[in-house]
Amino acid sequence: MSTFTQGPDSLDVHVMSVALIGPEEQRRQAVARALAGSQANVTREFASYPDLDDVPQLLDADYNVIIVDLDSDPEHALDLVEHICANGSSTVMVYSARADSELLVRCMRAGAREFLSQPIAPHTIAEALVRASVRRPTVRSSKKALGKLLIFAGAKGGSGVSTIASNFAVLLAQESHKNTLLLDLDLPLGAAALDLGIMTQFSTANALQNIGRLDSTFLSKLLTKHSSGLSVLSAPDKYTPVNASDEAIGKLLNVARQDFDYVVVDAGSSMGSTYKTLLEGAAIVYLITQVSISELRNSNRLISEFFTLPLPKLEIVLNRFTPNTLGIDEESITKALTMPATWKIPSDYGTVQRAQNTATPLALGDSAIADVIRKMARTACGLPAVAEKKKKFNLFR
Predict the structure, then answer these.
(1) CB neighbours of 127 closer than 8 A, spacing ≥ 6?
(2) Could you report the per-residue pLDDT of 151-210, keeping only the tens digit for each?
(3) Triad 83, 107, 127: Cα angle to 5°
């Protein structure tokens, strides 16, 4: 039986969450590229047809559009379309390389609203999504949108993920003036609490080990408040191995996003299979790396494996950056990463050490490092990277 992870809820009437189902990877990727060209994004891809018994779980994810491959198994695909249409409000589209009028009629009778003939042009799928948007039910418009999920991950241990994530979270809470949560999932040795200079009674281990009890009320009892207004769920203070399932992590993130406008996750550098679970609902993933052969190589491998599609948005952060480090120029860095770095945090070992030794977040001081992280936080919450200076009132002007 197939298994499904809860997908992100739709945020407003102009945002479409799309599930793409297709066992044949080459055809599925072609549809994904057409979606990207139409300025739409795939919320989740399924590399196999779900069992019909799993349709309720698929519908629980509340995708606005579900696009199904017909050619891999037409009979099962048609049964799947019929079950989805009979039990949910998602707009179902199908795609096929066959221009078969009989098949088209069967698809429409099963409930599909669009028949997309491959190869699919971006404008064709864009028009289909516009029609789907018009048909979207509005009864859910009063439901609170899930908070924005921002993931910090490292290409290698010691790249500075915790320092950047914790200071980013502080500045995001201050700059956005909205409820912000920092989740330390760098288990079992996360350092977010140490970077923020706070003592915590509970941790992410308590949440993940009591996943059956986890809801908004239970989560609120585990959190610690930082002086900046940031809420924190830190890693355990003692070495506590936690074997959390994808389902447990998915539920923790979902509960957190129900209560907070922003959820910042320190994912460390050894997430393994957890990576895909974290990426599913992420708005932005910040990949932290340094300019060294090993880290650039690791970054390239992660990007090639997890970021071949435009969703989620990837922003590369070069930490401890010094131009022409080890003789590696920026052109070589970009080539290794397959894309330009979005942010460059300068190297300032003394400032970082003082902040850590005094348990004072960098975000609360004045430094070149804090300045870049502040720009990252402001951009993430939709503000200009640099705040406009307010003009002084002049009585004689």
Answers:
(1) none
(2) 998 888 778 889 999 999 999 999 999 999 999 998 877 888 888 888 888 989 899 988
(3) 105
Mean pLDDT of 235-244: 79
pLDDT of the residue at 219: 93
The DSSP code sequence of 202-264 is --HHHHHHTTTT-SHHHHHHH-EE-TTS-EEEPPPSS-------HHHHHHHHHHHHHH-SEEE
Please give the pLDDT value at position 73: 92
* Measured torsion, CA atoms of residues 271, 275, 278, 283, in degrees rounded to the nearest 10: 120
Contacts of 254 (CB under 8 A, 6+ apart): 6, 146, 281
CA distances from 53 to 18, 72, 279 (A): 21, 19, 26
* 148 neighbors 262 (Cβ within 8 angstroms): yes
The one-letter amino acid at 323: P
What gap in Å lies between CA 141 and CA 262, rounded to an integer?
A: 20
**Which secondary-structure segment (H or E) carries 288?**
strand 284-289
Distance of CA 252 to the CA centre of its chain: 14
- DSSP for 176-209 reads H-S-EEEEE-S-SS--HHHHHT---S--HHHHHH
**102 CB neighbour count, 10 Å cutoff:** 8
pLDDT tens-digit map of 56-113: 888 877 888 999 999 999 999 999 998 888 777 888 999 998 878 888 888 888 888 8
pTM to 2 decimals?
0.62
CA distance 230 to 212: 26
Classify the C-alpha dihedral 37-127-8-109 as positive or negative: negative
Domains and CATH numbers, the chain: 18-135 (3.40.50.2300), 148-380 (3.40.50.300)
Q: For residue 262, what pLDDT is reported?
A: 96
| Closest by Cα among 162, 378, 150 to 264 | 150
For the chain, what is the radius of gyration of the CA atoms? 23
Q: How far apart are CA 372 and CA 17, in angstroms?
A: 32
Q: Taking 70 as the threshold, does the pLDDT of residue 127 lie above it?
A: yes
- Residues 300 and 156 sit within 8 Å (Cβ to Cβ): no
Read off the DSSP letter of residue 146.
P
- Here the tokens at position 88 are 């949910």
